[in-house]
Amino acid sequence: MRIKAAAASTFTVPSGTHLEALSGQNWSVWSGTIGALLQLNEVEDILTHDTSPSGVNADEWSSIQRKTMAYLRLHCTPDVFSIVESEVDFPTFKDKFDRLRETYGGTGSTAIFNLWIELTQARLDEGSPLAPQLAKLNEARVKLSNANMIVSDLQYCLILLNALPKSYEVVASTLLASGSASSLKYSEITARILNEEGRKSGPSASLNAAHAPVKSGKKKKKDHSNLICHYCNKKGHIQPDCRKKKKDEADKKKKEEEGGVDSGRKAANAHVLVHSSASIEEVSDNNEFRVALYSAVRTRWMMDSGATHHMSPYKTDFADYAPCQGTVRLGDKSTVDQVGMGSIVFNTSQGAQITLTNVLHIPQLKTRFLSTRALVQRGATVLFAQDSFEIAVNQRRIGSGYLENNLYWLDASMTSLNAHTRRAAIPLHVWHQRMGHVSHMVLKSHGPSATVGMDIDSSAVAIPNTCHGCELGKSARRPFSGSSKGTSRIYEVVHSDLAGPMQTKSIEGSSYIATFVDNHSRHAVVYFLKLKDLFVGALKKFLAWGETQTTHKLRALHSDRGGEYMASTVTEILSEKGIERHLTMPGSPQQNGKAERFNRTIMDKAMAMLHAAGLSAGFWECAVESAVHVYNRTPTRMLSWRTPYEIWNSGQVPDVSHLRIFGCKVYMHVPDDK
Q1: Do residues 255 and 482 touch, judged by C-beta distance below 8 A?
Q2: 484 and 619: one domain?
Q3: What pTM does this model have?
Q4: How far is residue 170 from each of residues 129, 176, 197, 205, measured CA to CA in Å?
Q5: What is the DSSP string of 116-142?
Q6: N or C of the chain: less Cβ packing under 10 Å?
Q7: pLDDT tens digits along 44-85
Q8: C-alpha angle with apex 510: 506 to 513, nearest 5 degrees?
């Protein structure tokens, strides 16, 4: 009777219920809402039966199938629904729903890892209501349990206590001291946390409300006309009512949301931890593709006239280092622990090398501090101007800095910060892996002369018989030979190709790569695309980038006859800019050899790096980005053993001392207040 009534009626949605379309990121909420709506309309059997249940008329069941599948199409985005659109492969609602659950609601290793990190490393923010945060933690625990990863009650209790803010330490201590660990109950812990939150927000608020006498009429406003505000120092109001304070707090919040720099905190170059669910999502920048271009990390020191010693939070800065224990008092009267001391060497923007001795290593700091007093004691002269300063030794300027957010800063070269790593020579095979599994012979013969920072250990230059990453990632037939035509300058002729779709979507959602290789320098740029139709946008971006970076105009674009290159939009763009089109003969990919060979080289490097790192295929976009970065800095025979980076940048030799093995373990310093 239920199925018969549902088949004859129209599906309804309760008033106030909002069901967003399934986008792939909201499976948990979406699937739960869909299940509830099917249950309200008494057709939940559609989730468990492919065919009509016993006693149900086939025509009525078919009517339910049509209605629910139409409902499914209306509440899925086109990209998501395209996965289950085939009526041959997914003829029933159950088939479609099960496939969507496998795709977006799966419990793979990455999802379980993200949930575990979200649960075990959670920190409650007392600036926001705690109840929703506690509910989110419990949701992560339930999801882990559904994935057969059980978190016991005792473990969950300890996780909750560890997640409490510092101001709740009394609550945690009281609960831990109240009895044995087995007596802890997460329901009681949750109740104590929420009670403490209520007490902090308004001491004895509920009791006061219960016993306060009922008064009629409006409360008389206190007279503050003779009081002085402690925030703006003006008369006539108190700090909670200060308009200037409220405006400043609103501006500060807006600035933080826009990614601005908080001038009131000395936290330059600090890593920022963004609170999230720890899931891997795409970061949108209003573009559907990303470009594999890299820039150097900015390193700088803050001048501090009140500091007695130079200080750095980064152990990797030190050229010489010795562990030692101590306590340092900061300007705000707080104390931090010193864990080491040593010397640091860096280059200024004037090219002078500065060696700092007796530098304190204090991991709790947010930035590097350069002591004015310590510099003067070593014979230096520091001259401050309105918006800059200079450091001089024997009347010769060795460095200059600038004023930013009312603080004086000195930029330092990253080259010197890695000087201590170059002192220890690295075995040839390690450099082979750092450089994206390039040929051992090439590195041994030409690597140190073509780059800066490649110190190969002369006692470990034997070429190994096998490389696990190369064996798995580079096994294939012999490649076609390339073209011998040359050009006289960079950005004269560019070879382009579109590769894909890949067997596996990247974790960022990309399926294609658009490559552009300069004929003269072999310098390459790669864009990652979700859809083939986005190639036009990638082409526009590359043309604009190339003209800006080189001040030249592109003369010819060499490509095959793929549909993306023969599209009318691409033809119009090239015609408007006066760019010739060099097309290959049909069925002759060898004529586009440079682009084809580049794709092969990059994918070989990427697959070798993935296999060597033990990562899944979903990380191919990260590997390709790294491979392109390394490729542009690798010496090649076609350039007389120089690098594409050097030719493209008018003779500037690339520095590769910052490279590490792809997939190696790294550590990031997270400030205590984050």
Answers
A1: no
A2: yes
A3: 0.35
A4: 19, 10, 13, 20
A5: HHHHHT----TTS-HHHHHHHHHHHHH
A6: N
A7: 888 888 888 887 888 888 888 888 888 888 888 888 888 888
A8: 110
